[in-house]
Amino acid sequence: MYKSLLVAGLSAGLLTGPAFAGGYGYGDRDYRGDGYDAPEYARVVNTQPVYESVRVDEPRQECWNERVAYRDTRYDANVTAGGLIGAVAGGVIGHQFGGGGGRVLATALGAVVGANVGASTAAANTPYTERSGYQQRCRQVSDTHYEDRVAAYDVTYRYGGRDYTTRMPYDPGDRIAVDVNVQPRSY
């Protein structure tokens, strides 16, 4: 009895084994029963880049030499010295007037008036000269131009003896993975 069961089990295994070994009758596709099929590939017969015109702003620095005038620094020194001398002289003269708190006020007022008179007198009597020179000035400017850049690729591929066209963001190379969906006709 055990021999007949063993022979029957071996015969069933030998007869049904080839049917399951070939991928459930779907050739070289990997059907696992979860709806996943291994990808099919189609041969790419033509790839054309699709160009897009893009504005490009390139910043650059534009510089030039500009003529400028400088005032002689001796003029400023003379006006300052005249103001100091006038303040001291005005303070001494103002100190001669008044008494007590009035004397302090007269001294201060004399110093202010004397500084103003001394600076004005020095400015009027000191000729200043202007020297000229060049100073580099710069500003940021933008050079604008347009470039053609590849935005996508129009790809023509052949599958099952028919040609198909699609637009892709990259060049796929010699072949392209395709989804094949076979459905029965409606009656």
Automatic annotation (TrEMBL):
Its main location: membrane. Residues 1-21 form the signal peptide. Pfam families: Rick_17kDa_Anti (PF05433). It is found in: Membrane. Residues 81-120 form the Glycine zipper 2TM domain. GO terms for cellular component: outer membrane. InterPro entries: Bact_OM_lipoprot/Surf_antigen (IPR051407), Gly_zipper_2TM_dom (IPR008816). Keywords: Membrane, Signal. PANTHER family: OUTER MEMBRANE LIPOPROTEIN, PTHR35603. This is Glycine zipper 2TM domain-containing protein. It comes from Solimonas terrae. The lineage of its organism: Bacteria, Pseudomonadati, Pseudomonadota, Gammaproteobacteria, Nevskiales.
